[in-house]
Amino acid sequence: MGHTLGLQLFDGLKPELTSFYYRMLGSIDDADDAVQETFWPSIHDMTKYRGGNRK
């Protein structure tokens, strides 16, 4: 997954993810931090995924 695609995905999901974390954490700043701390590593890991089953 390219960097541009990752940014587009992030922009599309950020409001919903931030809302989800805000409901859990009660702070918009903490919610923004949580989104960035969890989203970007996930995108990075997706770039390494080649599909198929792992055994």
Key words describing this protein structure:
55 residues, 0% strand, 2 helices, mainly alpha
User: What letter string, H or E per element, gives the SSE order?
Assistant: HH
* Unreliable segments of 5+ consecutive residues: none
Helix amount, in percent?
over 70%
Mean pLDDT: 81
Beta-strand content: under 5%
Overall SS class: mainly alpha
Main sheet overview: none
Rg, Å, rounded: 13 Å
Individual helix count: 2
CA distance, first residue to last residue? 24 Å
Morphology call: elongated
- Quantity of strands, as a count: 0
Task: Give a concise summary.
This protein has 55 residues and is mostly helical. The chain has two helices and no strands.
